[in-house]
């Protein structure tokens, strides 16, 4: 096995280990004030519905949350997901702009985060309920300072039975929440 293959194997192992530490949360367990603000915004645009339509989400309404925002399109009822809008904070944490990328493309790279995201997003689509997660990103694991992340993912859709977008907010820090 080449040195390159060994490094890739080590990184994949680190990703698997960190993905196993992810913790799914209830919305009430969220600690980040930014995520709490994101949930409050989502609740304010619901207008009595189970969840709001995509058209209710506006840059003006998001305001200070834009940096931490992701808008994820649901493809084929949840067979895939496409990152439509990705704020600066997730890009900085991952070291990559994944706007316009489908989750299936991330899965192809062997990224364990793709597997965790698929479970999370599928849960939002199937239940029509918000889902939250706290975990560790491996972006800097080789340098021994993993990045702690917390995220909340909220359904959007044209009616109370169909989720066609997911509004996500994430916060990543170099210390534990």
Can you describe what's shown?
With 177 residues, the chain is of the alpha+beta class. The protein has one domain: PAS domain (Beta-Lactamase). The chain has six helices and six strands. It has a six-stranded antiparallel β-sheet with strand order 1-4-5-6-2-3. A hairpin with a 4-residue loop joins β2 and β3. The radius of gyration is 16 Å and the shape is globular. The chain starts with a helix and ends with a strand.
Outline of the structure:
The protein has 177 residues and is α+β, with helices and mostly antiparallel strands.
Query: How many structural domains does the protein architecture include?
Result: 1
Number of strands: 6
Write down the overall geometry.
Answer: globular
Mean of residue pLDDT values: 82
| SS field, number of helical segments | 6
Indicate the radius of gyration in whole angstroms.
Answer: 16 Å
What is the CATH-assigned architecture?
2-Layer Sandwich
Oligomer: single chain
Helical content class: 25-40%
Q: Could you name the CATH homologous superfamily?
A: PAS domain
Regions with little confidence, pLDDT below 50 for 5+ residues: 10-20, 139-143
């Amino acid at each position: 096995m080449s040195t390159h293959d060994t490094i890739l194997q080590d990184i994949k192992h680190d990703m698997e280990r960190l993905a196993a530490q992810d913790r799914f949360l209830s919305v009430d367990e969220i600690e980040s004030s930014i995520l709490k603000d994101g949930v409050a915004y989502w609740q304010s645009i619901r207008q009595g519905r189970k969840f709001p339509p995509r058209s209710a989400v506006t840059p003006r309404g998001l305001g200070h949350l834009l940096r931490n925002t992701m808008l994820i399109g649901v493809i084929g009822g949840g067979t895939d997901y496409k990152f439509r809008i990705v704020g600066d904070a997730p890009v900085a944490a991952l070291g990559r702009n994944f706007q316009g990328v489908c989750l299936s493309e991330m899965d192809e790279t062997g990224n364990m985060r793709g597997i965790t995201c698929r479970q999370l997003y599928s849960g939002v689509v199937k239940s029509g309920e918000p889902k939250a997660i706290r975990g560790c990103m491996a972006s800097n694991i080789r340098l021994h300072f993993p990045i702690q992340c917390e995220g909340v993912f909220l359904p959007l859709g044209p009616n109370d039975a169909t989720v066609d977008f997911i509004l996500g907010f994430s916060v990543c820090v170099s210390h534990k929440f």
